[in-house]
Amino acid sequence: MTALARSIGGHTDAFRHDFARREVELPGGALQWLQDRRRAAMTAFTAIGVPNRRVEAWKYTDLANLLEPDLLPITGSGDADERVSPLLDESNHLRLFNGFLSRCASDDAIDIVDLSALRGEVPDWLRENFGVLACGPDQPMGAASLALMRGGVAIRVRRDNSLALHFSNGASLRPCVSHCRVLLLVESGVSVRLLESHTGETSSGSLRNIGVELILNANSRLEHIRLQKDAADAVHVTSLGAMLRRDSQYRACYAALGARASRLDINIRLTGDRSEAALHHVAAVDTGIADITSVIDHASPNTRSRQLFKNVAGGHGRVVNQGRVIVREGSVKSDSHQLFKALLLSPRAEVDAKPELEIFADDVLCGHGTAIGALDEDALFYLRSRGIPEEEAKRLLIRAFLAEAVEGFGNEAIRDSLWQELEGALTKAAKASR
Fold it and tell me: Does 91 have pLDDT greater than 90?
C-alpha cells in the first residue's frame, strides 16, 4: 500500500474510530432521535470517506491529500478569543471559538440552543429540523460534522432581525480537527440578515469542519453575508444545506480570502413554489485554494436561481468554481442562470470552472457562462494615459470587476467593512504576482 493510500484511508478510519469510541459521550448521546441521525450521517460519510481527487465533485480539491496525519479532535473551547469580527457587530452577536459557543447576546425574538450541551428534552423546532440537511453522501464532510459534532449552535428567528455569527480558532501546536454544526430556522414571514465571519490563528494545518443548515419557512427572507479569512496554514470546509419553502428568498454574498485550502460546499433545495436563491461569490487569493461548489435543486415549479461568482487569483493562488443546477421532472417555469468570471494576475495562478445543467422538465429557462482572463490591457492603457499610476489603475479595474458581486448586499457600513477586507487580500495577491 502506498503512502498516499494509507493517508487517504487513515483519515476516514480515524473519523470512524472516533465515532465508535465516543458515540455515547458526544452531545445528545442520550437522545435516540439524534443518535439515529448521527449513525445515518456516519454511514453516509463512510460510503465516500474523506474526499480525494477520485471523487468527481472533489477532483480539483484533493482534501485527503491536503490534511495532516493524526488530526487531534478538539473537545473543548479552551480560552475564548475576544477579537472583534471583521464584519460589523450586530446587537444579536454569537461567537464560536474552536467550534464551541463562547458568547451569546440576543433579544427575545431569537431562540438559541447550545449544541455542546444537548441533553434531556429539547424544543420541538430543534428535533424536527436539526440533522436533516448537509449530512448525506453528496456532502461527506457535512455528514462527518454531524456524526462527530462536539459543539455548535441552533437558532430560531421569530420576527424580523439581524444576527452576527463569528467563528474564531486559537493557535495550535499540532494539527487538530473541530466538527461544528449550525442550524438557522427562519419562521414564516420573517426577514433576517446574517453576518457570518471566520478568522483564526496559526493552526499547524488544522481542519475546521462545519455543517450549516438553513431552513426558510414560507414567505421568509434571508440575506447572508459571509467572510472567510482563516490562517494561511488552515484547512477550512463548510458544508451548507438550505431548504427554501413556498415564496421564500435566499440572497447570499460569500467572500473567500485566505486559508491553505477552503471549500464552501453548497446544496440548496427549492422545495416550494416561487422560492428563489441568488448566490454571489468573490475570492481573492495569492496562495492556497479557494473552492466553492454549489448544487441548486429546482424541486418545485416556478422557482428561480442566480449564481454570480467573481474571482481574482494572483501568485500561486488557485480558485475552483463548480456549479450544478438540477431541474426536476415537473418543475416547469424554472428559471436559472450561472456566470463564473475570473481574473488571473499571475502566470502561476489557476482558476478551474465547471458549470453544469441537468434538466428533466420542459418549459424552463436555464443558462450558464464562463470567462477567465487577464486585466484588459486597453483599459489599463487608458487609465495610465490619464496620469493614473499603474498599480492604482490595476486596483481600480479589479475593484470595478468585483463590484457587481458585492453591491446590493447589507448597508453601506457592512459593504465598507467587506471592501476593506477585500482590498487587503487584493493587495497581497498583487504583490505575489510581481
Answer: no
